[in-house]
Amino acid sequence: MDKNLFARQKNKKNNIFLKIREMIKGFNKNEFQERLNNLLKNYKIDWVKKCSELTMDWEQIINISKDNLCTIGGHTKNHYALNRLSETEIIEEVMGANKIIESKIGKKVEHFSYPFGTRNEITKRESNIVKKLGFKTAAITRYGNIYPEHKNYLECLPRIMLTEGFDIKNVGKIRKK
Q1: Model pTM score
Q2: Which residue from 13, 20, 42, 119 lies 20 to 30 Å from 50 (Cα-Cα)?
Q3: Number of independent structural domains in the chain
Q4: What is the pLDDT along the chain (177 residues), one digit of tens a residue?
Q5: CA–CA separation, 12 vs 16, rounded Å?
Q6: Is residue 18 part of a domain?
């Protein structure tokens, strides 16, 4: 186990999170849970419990879905990198998640967000599969604003992630990486 996955400072924790994220997106679907458990076994953390603590529960999701200014979009059932799945598996992951969400909120899921959406995980193949599923829009994880030219690429829109350090004054500014 990598001893570099421990930190006390917030910025180091964020860096470790990104490091773990890079590791898990390469995990094969059939070994995903086992490899994640092995990755974190030497740490005193119940990652399933921690995920539950950090995410909204169904009651919160249902309540927010009732607000006319909010739209609940789809994701996937298991958060696998889609480029590591067959077309059938992608459809099962996406539509299976939609079925669960729709049964809870009583509304059709019309928008989608890729679990891993960089150029390395989302190619024309994955975006074409998602496009065929009939979503109005799908967001990749590449940072950016949406412009009129995106009207022909609604299955792979850039997004601005609203994280803890998000500053509304940065909307509309192009961030250099």
Answers
A1: 0.76
A2: 119
A3: 2
A4: 455 667 777 777 777 777 877 787 778 777 888 888 888 777 777 878 888 888 899 999 999 999 999 999 999 999 888 999 999 999 999 999 999 999 999 999 999 999 888 888 889 999 999 999 999 999 998 878 888 999 999 999 988 766 666 666 766 665 544
A5: 6
A6: yes
